[in-house]
Amino acid sequence: MADYDFDVLIIGSGPGGYVAAIRAAQLGLKTACAESRETLGGTCLNVGCIPSKALLHASELFDEAAHGTLAKWGVKTSGIEVDLDAMHGSRKEAVKGLTQGIEFLFKKNKVEWLKGRASFESADTVKVGDRTVRAKNIVIATGSSVTPLPGVTVDRERIVDSTGALELAQVPKKMVVIGGGVIGLELGSVWRRLGAEVTVVEFLDQILPGFDGDVRKEANKIFKKQGFEFKLSTKVTKAERKGDIVTLTVEPAAGGAAEMIEADVVLVSIGRRPNTEDLALDKAGVQTNQRGQIETDHDFRTKVPGVWAIGDVIPGPMLAHKAEDEGIAVAENIAGLTGIVNHDVIPSVVYTMPEIAGVGLTEEQAKEHGEVKIGKFPMLANSRAKTNRETDGFVKVIADAKTDRVLGVWIIASVGGTMIAQAAQAMEFGATSEDIAYTCHAHPTHSEALKEAAMAVTGKPIHI
Ligand code: FAD
Ligand code: NAI
């Protein structure tokens, strides 16, 4: 490789970047990964997927103990209290273990970690801290950051983004969440379970954009039952902090009379935007689209030879598993193999209780393509869910009316995030609803609800 320092340099060590680095090294390529954070793993491991799931798990355990769920099972508890320091301790331990795990995997696979912020000098040369390196292939995997909301400045104390909401030192009395998407509902759930009153202000007329319409409506009902308050079709125009209180000015999204809401903590969660600004992309000749994303072809090549991009920085859902699969595929493509990601089958999960999961098309999208058949099955009629008192939710299977091929599966169920893997696999193999209906499912499991929803596509479930 003549005067190149590396065959592959990856910028960013999130789920996209670190997976690409490991796979490239496994394929025999001399690989480095530039990361400016003090620990590897990107948003997901440091301030995203993992710490949020640690707090979701801890708060769920508290909720079960404090609000009578355990007692109903004959598990008596008394003197239940939140020890927030211990919860944060567990969160940090989870993050530390996993980020160090990536460091270990880098050493094991001989991936060199270039510590520092990377920026392009040219299409094959990158400056990382005070070192300049040349690489035959460069993969941009710089991820995304919180989208700011004009008029509502994050102060990391009372007005926080997701990172701040993972680190609150006290349970808020009143929390206002701006944005009824995935972060708002997951982190809103954490603090509601621990005792906060939570109001979600959402610009659109329903929460969870991108999810199936039935799922959005049902999720709204379930969260309301759990004590969430929703202000839909509403926008926040201003936030003013006086001492410990933040006053938000809100208006109907379509315009109208303003109203004030007070909170002691405000979470801004209106989406994320790609990290492309500090890379000096112009020096490499790489352009971004109107949303700041780097566009690639199906193989993750940008328009500049030798420069590739994956993960949150390119179009598509901003999800860790999508970034990981793209990481594997890009490394394989660089090595001359055929790396493919089927972007039509990327599952999406909201890790609330119950979990909300989906893969493929929503009913609304599927109907735009042609006639569909729908099968639905309520968790209330699933023996395991009923026994466990986890009866909220349903499974919905959407199939092509002519071919019976499954086009989408949507699940609200306590273990929906686990159940959706089966649906994704079936769809990857081009399954029909009949294929799922005739697959033997272990009893008693929540997954039987997927089988019955598939049976319902042609009108013959057993248990309803
Ligand atoms: P990132 O993980 O963002 O990593 C990019 C890395 O690049 C960062 O470490 C950054 O420091 C580094 N970097 C950026 N610029 C430079 C530079 N110039 N030089 C050097 N390094 C640089 N997704 C899920 O699938 N499941 C979940 O449960 C989930 N939960 C989430 C919870 C929260 C609170 C948040 C915020 C996100 C969550 N996500 C979840 C989304 C998930 O974190 C992202 O989709 C995923 O991390 C994207 O991976 P990535 O590799 O593209 O980028
Ligand atoms: P999101 O896109 O999921 O939701 C943002 C919400 O804010 C939308 O409902 C939108 O309509 C609303 N909104 C936008 N502007 C608004 C305004 N001015 N006022 C009120 N509401 C407004 O984004 P979120 O929740 O910030 O998450 C960012 C990304 O992180 C998501 O794309 C998601 O993919 C990823 N993520 C994934 C998780 C998972 O897979 N479990 C968990 C957390 C984040």
From TrEMBL:
Question: E.C. number, please?
Answer: 1.8.1.4
Its cofactor is: FAD
Print the keywords alphabetically.
Disulfide bond, FAD, Flavoprotein, NAD, Oxidoreductase, Redox-active center
Q: Which Gene3D superfamilies match?
A: 3.30.390.30, FAD/NAD(P)-binding domain
Which residues does the UniProt record annotate as the domain FAD/NAD(P)-binding? 6-327
- What are the Pyridine nucleotide-disulphide oxidoreductase dimerisation domain coordinates in residue numbering? 346-454
Which enzyme class, named as a word? oxidoreductase
- Details of cofactor binding: Binds 1 FAD per subunit.
Give me the reactions it catalyses: N(6)-[(R)-dihydrolipoyl]-L-lysyl-[protein] + NAD(+) = N(6)-[(R)-lipoyl]-L-lysyl-[protein] + NADH + H(+)
Other observations noted: The active site is a redox-active disulfide bond.
What PANTHER family does the entry give?
DIHYDROLIPOYL DEHYDROGENASE, MITOCHONDRIAL, DISULFIDE OXIDOREDUCTASE
- What family does the entry list? Belongs to the class-I pyridine nucleotide-disulfide oxidoreductase family.
Please identify the protein, giving its name as recorded: Dihydrolipoyl dehydrogenase
Gene this protein is translated from: lpdA_1
